[in-house]
């Protein structure tokens, strides 16, 4: 594993957080005086990423409650509801308002809808007869930065809404959010994408650009010199990747502990570390774990914000394959130990040296705490990875990916049902089998469906039907019944062909360290199709062979890569769409998008505020940027990869890895939300993962 | 040659400060008597609205124009009549002007109308409650109004979109305030409107949170006026004392005894002149009170009316319209008698130059270091002058000075020239907008243009906007709607044909003009809407075809009952909210059957609308959804819908019925599953009955049911294993494992026990597992020694070595060594 340069040359996405904060403050200030904030629990997570309770309090929020069934006793006259425009929420709100008026309590109600107001809501309020009492306004929460190279709309339901309900609201919202990005940094010179809904999004985006340009001339956008392209990946194009078990550190945390809006719930004891550094530092060095996890699991939980910028250890670990996490933890522990020892050795040092060290001490302690936490987290994950069910499902996944003995794998899935494996694991494996093999034999499928229903309850029947129905259609019988629409039958996924043409499977026989020379390390041997498609656009060499290997070989041979610089990294090639892979891309059902955008051309002196922001942000580019400009005569450009319907942590890890293989191009991941197979299946089944326990809300 | 600017100047404060009285227009009796009317003036050189004061007796004389009883007339500051309204509704309580020059008229029933200068109005109401108690008084500011109800409550309306009025904090008054005023929200610290009521000797300040008594003792007050910047307040007491305080009543700024002037009669008005002087008017006298109590008297014939402006005050009398302001610093510097400032010298130099006097050169030389600043000042002074002749002279002087500078950015010079052209154009008598340079900058050019269009002065507006290189869109839009209104089709012609020709002509004219001047960016929808409103559907459709923005297009299409097209456009736009908007409207308006047919007939192009309808209906209107599925013959979906309903209903027979009724439509396998489901539910019900409802079975999955019943052989082993482990009944587990050969093997035992944290118990089962796996299993249990022994038994030396190297501590290592030594 090569050590990555620590500084990343990417745009400063924290502007987006600033914008979100400011507009929240603005929305709150529109209501005068002390107010009670009633919060949609699904917004608490996203909000906590842009603001903190103290900021809300500064702007008059007296008390906060979750938006939930039942009466609301607010101490203030002003009540502010902050929620997404969902009918369930509005019904609760209407109910609370009616209760208040029945008890003749006087309140003024403001409803802030995220991200925009909705006729639907007005209508429901009207039907409930409370429209006159409520002032409706909006809080436009768009992309939230969840890492310095990831922005997300944090809408976990997007996948279900688009592909199960057919509700395209999130596509529209995405286009709005992407347009905001364009307003900040300029037009994407090129939009590339794959998939029907990706096509729709691109269409909306270009239409919006021309419309906005029509409204007033000053908002005409220039072609960005920060971005080189936008790549839209429709989640439906690659269903295989999220169905697999993620094997990076962050991915596994997500699978096991469920990362929600960058937060996980961890036992309190992991966060409060005994302060004696030496003892525990040496203690945490060993990662051989006794099965102490059950004891930990019963403890009280507390939310922890997983953030690479605040937690250096996490930054180092998050994208590693879990197999190498232990080693890395060990290394970090040893380094920390050395640092402390340094300190001891300096006991006799001069006062000034001592002062230097004491200055560093805070950092060391923070690192120590982080180390302790991640050791604890690993301890929690290891037993899971050692469990029988986990390993069996991994084995089934690997066999399916190799198309090895599919009927046998289905039998193995049946065994898992018998062993009482989680519903989502079973369904994920079944869907995987169906996609890869182009359907499961009708008889077997009926049987296994029956077993699923018996084992987990008949209330999952709608789930099974949704999975089989177009446009999702990821759990199909083979051959298809004659009644099925032609759309379903023609959309068969060409997995076997892709496996070869996109080099999806890498032999995993070598030790892990060597495997990390291709993005496939994130799934221990399988390269995510989505990222391969991105590589088809932005790193064509990486699809054909391992870029890391090429580096050691003779880069001069490969004319396309350009000259090798003194850094040893090849220069990124310009974006020309899917050129060279048209056949492969066409073989996947769904529209292919390739649009070139032309900007205003003329720049008038008047610049919008947003523009000024972006100018400021450009100067935030890390000094490395200018460095590489000097080296290659070309500035580093950003390729934005937008996952419509959500992306997984492994895909981000793979993209980061790919980004380090060339110079002159970095990736910025944008997504509707973070998903994994489990959360996707569960949202289709209608099981909410959000669990707000206390009545009084906090972030 | 216009007279020298200083002739209109008057000195105050020992000659340090000058105020000037600029004659804007001479009116010569164009207005009705101000003394007999109620007047409302619009700021920034806006028009005046007059209504006859019915409390006064008036003498009828033919010389003066007169207003009939219930009429409101609007005059431009130059005395041109702009509009004559007759008011048929209940008694007018108050009228005033919005920021964009619309006249607000509020009546005692709480109904208010907003008239534009063409006489078109929109009407809103303050609500039925307000109507019942009645409105007794109101104050109108640029962006809203506050009304005092008959029950002495304050109602606030924000903006002019007809929003619901908010009730401000209750001032708990027992009688109406003697006088009251408000500070507009953009001038207060809280950014919410603040109302000041003079009650008894004190003043109450009220906003939407609280009413605070300021605990004053000088009241009651007869007049109250906040300064244009909202920072200070002028109060006039019963005894005629003028008192100026900060609006938070923390500091008193000035006191002045207005009776000392010896004016006759009651005070008519107290108004601010800019932010630092106050104008008090009586019937025969206008008095300007400076910040230090110095005064200036102005004499007018008859009563006057004063309008506060941001930079001065406009005084309208029967014969003239004047503007009184403090002389701006730049003018003062150039023209003040005896001024030796560089700008004055520059102006002097230019005059000398024109007189061919050599002094010009001398002058310029003497101010060379300050020349740039002097030029700037002279340019600014040009902006302050009303007379074009003087503007020109000053600009020429600036131009002259400029030529002595090597480096000078002439932008200001050019801009000032342009601006003055615009200002002079709108100040003409016919237009009558006496806007000052300061006000123009304060309001923005586009505001001025919208004021021109609202007077139907489209050509002037268009010229100005192209002169200032602004977008002509707004002007064009206004022009087009005016055109449509004016060109009402002549129905008298040969019926429909004549109509159509008219439509086409207008449409062509509008489109041509738009394309020539505005590019593609003008919104046709608004104009189409206007056409629709006046009943010209065909014209509206023609214009709407040119609209590219769906969000503008769709609502109008809906209104025009082009349902299909509206829905199609909404779906194409991708804006789901717009789709909902159309769907819900149509659902309300159309009979259910044709509503469904509309969606179904749309086929794949309207598919997303159909799905959105389902999303909405599932939550809010399941009945409608069932009808929809029924009408579309979607049996599977309707079965699923029933199933979902069944899931919601608990422990009753209804779900059973739902399921059995609905299983038929499902396709074969699914129907079978539904069948099974209903059988299961029935079985669970019997189970519950058998256990006399002590155990809940209903709605459980089969597995869970079995777990409770302890049935089924193969799963039973797993279930029992898990159950016994969870209850830590290890003896029971032992007995159970021996009761029969395990169908699931014993490895499962070991693994499950280890997983649950019972390695010690797990060890017992290792020996019963398959031999090759035992070593690993022992290790998993943490029994290194046993693992070692196993190695020995199997004679696996290599494995033993690896064990030794990986074992956790030295104690075990030693034991392993021992085992190793006994090997061979």
UniProtKB/TrEMBL annotation, chain A:
This chain belongs to the protein called Sec1-like protein
Q: Which organism is it from?
A: Russula earlei
UniProtKB/TrEMBL annotation, chain B:
> Know the name of this protein?
Vacuolar assembling/sorting protein VPS16
Per the UniProt record, the source organism is Russula earlei
**Source taxonomy lineage?**
Eukaryota, Fungi, Dikarya, Basidiomycota, Agaricomycotina
């Amino acid at each position: 594993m090569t050590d990555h340069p620590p500084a990343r040359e990417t745009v400063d996405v924290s502007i987006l957080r600033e914008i979100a904060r400011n507009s929240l403050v603005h929305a709150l200030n529109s209501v005068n005086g002390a107010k009670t904030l009633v919060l949609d629990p699904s917004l608490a997570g996203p909000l906590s990423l842009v603001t903190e309770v103290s900021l809300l309090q500064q702007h008059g929020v007296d008390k906060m409650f979750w938006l939930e069934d039942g009466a609301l006793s607010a101490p203030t006259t002003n009540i502010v509801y902050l929620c997404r425009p969902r009918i369930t929420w509005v019904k609760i709100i209407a109910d609370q308002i009616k209760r208040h008026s029945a008890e003749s309590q006087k309140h003024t109600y403001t409803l802030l809808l995220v991200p925009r107001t909705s006729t639907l809501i007005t209508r429901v309020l009207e039907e409930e007869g409370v429209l006159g009492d409520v002032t409706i306004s909006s809080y436009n929460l768009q992309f939230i930065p969840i890492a310095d190279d990831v922005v997300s709309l944090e809408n976990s339901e997007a996948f279900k809404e688009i592909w199960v309900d057919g509700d395209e609201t999130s596509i529209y919202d995405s286009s709005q959010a992407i347009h905001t990005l364009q307003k900040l940094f300029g037009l994407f010179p090129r939009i590339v994408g794959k998939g029907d809904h990706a096509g729709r999004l691109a269409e909306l985006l270009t239409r919006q650009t021309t419309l906005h340009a029509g409204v007033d001339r000053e908002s005409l956008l220039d072609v960005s010199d920060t971005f080189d392209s936008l790549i839209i990946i429709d989640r439906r194009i690659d269903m295989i990747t999220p169905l697999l078990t993620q094997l990076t550190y962050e991915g596994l945390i997500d699978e096991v502990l469920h990362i929600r809006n960058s937060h996980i719930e961890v036992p309190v004891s992991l966060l409060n570390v005994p302060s004696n550094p030496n003892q525990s530092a040496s203690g945490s060095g060993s990662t051989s774990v006794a099965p102490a996890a059950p004891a930990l699991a019963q403890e009280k939980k507390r939310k922890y914000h997983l953030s690479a910028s605040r937690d250096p250890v996490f930054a180092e670990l998050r994208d590693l394959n879990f197999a190498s996490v232990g080693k890395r933890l060990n290394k970090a522990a040893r380094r920390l130990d050395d640092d402390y020892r340094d300190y001891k050795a300096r006991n006799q040092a001069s006062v000034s040296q001592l002062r230097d060290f004491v200055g560093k001490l805070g950092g060391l302690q923070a690192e120590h705490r982080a180390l302790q936490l991640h050791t604890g987290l690993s301890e929690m994950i290891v037993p899971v990875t050692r469990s029988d069910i986990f390993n069996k499902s991994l084995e089934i996944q690997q066999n399916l990916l190799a198309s090895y003995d599919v009927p046998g794998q289905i039998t193995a899935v049946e065994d898992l049902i018998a062993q009482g494996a989680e519903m989502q694991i079973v369904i994920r494996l079944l869907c995987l089998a169906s996609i890869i093999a182009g359907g499961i034999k009708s008889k077997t499928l009926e049987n296994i469906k029956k077993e699923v229903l018996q084992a987990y309850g008949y209330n999952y029947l709608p789930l099974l039907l949704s999975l089989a129905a177009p446009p999702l259609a990821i759990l199909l019988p083979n051959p298809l019944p004659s009644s099925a629409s032609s759309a379903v039958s023609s959309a068969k996924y060409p997995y076997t062909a892709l496996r070869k043409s996109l080099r999806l499977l890498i032999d995993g026989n070598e030790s892990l360290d060597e495997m990390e020379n291709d993005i496939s390390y994130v799934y221990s041997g399988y390269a995510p199709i989505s990222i391969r498609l991105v590589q088809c656009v932005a790193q064509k060499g990486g699809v054909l062979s391992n870029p890391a290997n090429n580096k050691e070989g003779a880069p001069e041979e490969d004319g396309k890569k350009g000259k090798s610089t003194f850094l040893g990294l090849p220069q990124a090639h310009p974006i020309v769409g899917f050129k060279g892979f048209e056949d492969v891309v066409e073989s996947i059902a769904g529209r292919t998008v390739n649009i070139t955008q032309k900007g205003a051309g003329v720049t008038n002196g008047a610049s919008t505020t947003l523009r000024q922001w972006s100018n400021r942000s450009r100067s935030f580019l890390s000094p490395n940027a200018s460095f590489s400009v000097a080296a290659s005569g070309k500035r580093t450009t950003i390729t934005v990869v937008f996952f419509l319907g959500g992306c997984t942590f492994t895909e981000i890890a793979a993209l980061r890895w790919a980004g380090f293989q060339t110079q002159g191009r970095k990736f910025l991941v944008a997504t509707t939300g973070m998903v994994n197979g489990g959360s996707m299946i569960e949202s289709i089944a209608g099981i909410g993962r959000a669990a707000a326990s206390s009545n009084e809300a906090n972030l | 040659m216009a007279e020298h600017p200083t002739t209109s100047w008057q000195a105050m404060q020992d000659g340090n400060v000058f105020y000037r009285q600029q004659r804007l227009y001479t009116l010569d009796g164009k207005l009705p008597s101000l003394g007999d009317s109620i007047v409302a003036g619009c700021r920034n050189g806006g028009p005046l609205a007059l209504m006859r004061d019915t409390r006064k007796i008036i003498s009828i004389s033919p010389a003066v124009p007169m207003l009939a009883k219930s009429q409101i007339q609007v005059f431009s500051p130059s005395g041109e009549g702009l509009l004559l309204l007759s008011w048929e509704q209940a008694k007018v309580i108050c009228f005033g002007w919005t920021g964009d020059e619309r006249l607000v008229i509020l009546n005692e029933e709480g109904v208010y109308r907003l008239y534009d200068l063409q006489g078109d109005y929109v009407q809103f109401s303050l609500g039925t409650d307000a109507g019942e108690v009645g409105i007794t008084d109101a104050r109108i500011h640029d962006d809203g109004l506050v009304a005092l109800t008959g029950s002495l409550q304050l109602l606030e309306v924000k903006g002019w979109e007809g929003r619901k009025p908010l009730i401000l904090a209750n001032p708990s008054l027992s009688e109406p305030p003697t006088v009251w005023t408000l500070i507009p929200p953009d001038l207060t610290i809280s950014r919410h409107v603040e109302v000041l009521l003079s009650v008894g000797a004190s003043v109450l300040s009220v906003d939407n949170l609280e009413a605070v008594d300021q605990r004053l003792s000088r009241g009651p007050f007869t007049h109250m006026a906040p300064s244009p910047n909202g920072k200070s307040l002028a109060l006039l007491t019963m005894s005629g004392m003028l008192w100026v305080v900060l609006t938070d009543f923390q500091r008193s700024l000035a006191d002045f005894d207005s009776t000392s002037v010896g004016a006759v009669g009651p005070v008519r008005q107290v108004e601010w002149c800019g932010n630092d002087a106050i104008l008090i008017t009586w019937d025969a006298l206008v008095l300007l009170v400076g910040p230090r109590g110095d005064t200036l008297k102005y004499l007018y014939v008859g009563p006057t009316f004063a309008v506060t402006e941001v930079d001065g005050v406009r005084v309208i009398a029967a014969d003239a319209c004047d503007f009184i302001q403090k002389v701006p610093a730049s003018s003062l510097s150039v023209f003040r008698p005896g001024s030796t400032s560089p700008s004055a010298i520059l102006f002097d130099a230019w005059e000398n130059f024109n007189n061919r006097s050599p002094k010009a050169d001398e002058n310029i030389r003497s101010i060379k270091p300050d020349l740039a600043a002097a030029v700037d000042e002279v340019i600014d002074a040009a902006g302050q002058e009303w007379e074009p002749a003087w503007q020109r002279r000053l600009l020429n002087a600036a131009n002259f000075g400029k030529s002595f500078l090597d480096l000078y950015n002439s932008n200001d010079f050019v801009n000032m020239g342009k601006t003055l052209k615009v200002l002079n154009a709108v100040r003409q008598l016919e237009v009558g907008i006496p806007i000052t340079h300061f006000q123009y900058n304060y309001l923005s050019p586009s505001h001025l243009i919208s004021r021109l269009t609202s007077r139907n002065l489209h050509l002037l507006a268009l010229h100005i906007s192209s002169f200032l290189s602004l977008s002509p869109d707004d002007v064009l839009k206004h022009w087009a709607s005016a055109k449509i209104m004016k060109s009402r089709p002549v129905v008298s012609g040969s019926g429909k044909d004549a109509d159509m020709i008219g439509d086409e002509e207008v449409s062509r004219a509008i489109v041509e003009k738009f394309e020539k001047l505005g590019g593609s960016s003008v919104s046709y929808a608004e104009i189409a809407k206007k056409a629709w409103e006046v009943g010209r559907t065909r014209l509206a459709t023609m214009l709407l075809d040119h609209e590219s923005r769906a969000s503008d297009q769709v609502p109008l299409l809906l209104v025009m009952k082009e349902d299909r097209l509206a829905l199609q456009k909404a779906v194409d736009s991708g804006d789901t909210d717009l789709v909902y908007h159309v769907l819900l409207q149509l659902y309300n308006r159309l009979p259910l059957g044709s509503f469904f047919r509309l969606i179904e007939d749309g086929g794949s192009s309207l598919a997303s609308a159909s799905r959105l309808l389902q999303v909405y209906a599932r939550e809010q209107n399941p009945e409608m959804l069932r009808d929809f599925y029924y009408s579309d013959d979607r049996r599977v979906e309707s079965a699923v819908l029933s199933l979902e309903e069944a899931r919601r209903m608990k422990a009753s027979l209804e779900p059973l019925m739902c399921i059995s009724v609905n299983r038929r439509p499902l396709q074969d396998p699914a129907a079978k599953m539904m069948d099974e489901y209903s059988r299961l539910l029935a079985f669970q019900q019997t189970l519950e009955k058998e256990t006399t409802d002590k155990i809940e079975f209903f709605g459980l999955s089969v597995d869970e049911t079995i777990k409770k019943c302890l049935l089924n052989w193969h799963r039973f082993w797993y279930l029992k294993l898990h159950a016994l482990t969870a209850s830590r009944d290890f003896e029971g587990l032992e007995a159970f494992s021996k009761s029969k050969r395990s169908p699931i093997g014993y490895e499962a035992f070991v693994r499950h026990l280890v997983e649950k944290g019972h390695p010690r118990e797990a060890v017992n089962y290792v020996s019963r597992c398959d031999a090759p796996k035992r070593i690993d299993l022992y290790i998993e249990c943490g029994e290194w020694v046993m693992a070692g022994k196993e190695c020995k038994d199997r004679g696996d030396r290599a494995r033993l070595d690896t064990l030794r190297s990986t074992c956790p501590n030295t104690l075990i290592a030693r034991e392993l060594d021992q085992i190793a030594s006994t090997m061979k």
